[in-house]
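User: Can you recover a sequence for this backbone? Please restate the input before giving your answer.

Assistant: Of course. Working from this structure:
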């Protein structure tokens, strides 16, 4: 299994190769994301650009944030991006919290739920929400974390769940 950082680096290299081959879909994708992020459109795409593009697609502001968070070097109070949440989770009633201890208390009341980070906040979700996010595939990973991605941050189980999440976000 590739580390989450290595997976994003691989995606960036593939994207860069496609951009250098002037593949219309890759150019359009990169241009769209660059405009969304208010990044300048370069004359020549570089690996740095591609890393920022794939990091943005994964739910981070830029490559350095993705590398920092996915390597396990961040603190729980830092912005964790939107990696663990996307439009597939819309429509579900999740419990949102500004403070980890409040989210942890909710998880203790409902131990069959799942606690995940979102930027500087936390949410507690049900199985129906994490399934379309690609996170319900391996129950043993969640059990190893006691259903708490924040408390298990940087652990082997957390890395395994990152791999599942990245698999779910892989572009065709």
């Amino acid at each position: 299994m590739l580390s989450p950082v290595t997976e994003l680096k691989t995606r960036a290299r593939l994207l860069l190769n496609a951009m250098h081959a002037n593949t219309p879909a890759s150019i359009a994708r990169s241009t769209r994301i660059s405009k969304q992020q208010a990044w300048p459109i370069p004359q020549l795409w570089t690996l740095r650009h591609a890393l920022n593009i794939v990091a943005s697609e994964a739910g981070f502001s830029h490559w350095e944030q993705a590398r920092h968070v996915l390597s396990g070097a961040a603190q729980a109070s830092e912005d964790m991006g939107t990696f663990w949440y996307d439009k597939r989770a819309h429509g579900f009633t999740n419990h949102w919290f500004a403070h980890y201890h409040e989210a942890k208390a909710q998880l203790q009341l409902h131990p069959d739920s799942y606690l995940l980070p979102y930027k500087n906040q936390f949410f507690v979700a049900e199985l129906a929400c994490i399934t379309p996010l690609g996170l319900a595939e391996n129950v043993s990973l969640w059990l190893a974390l006691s259903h708490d991605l924040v408390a298990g941050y940087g652990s082997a189980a957390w890395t395994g769940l990152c791999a599942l999440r990245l698999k779910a976000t892989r572009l065709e």
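That completes the design. DSSP finds eight helices and three strands in the chain.
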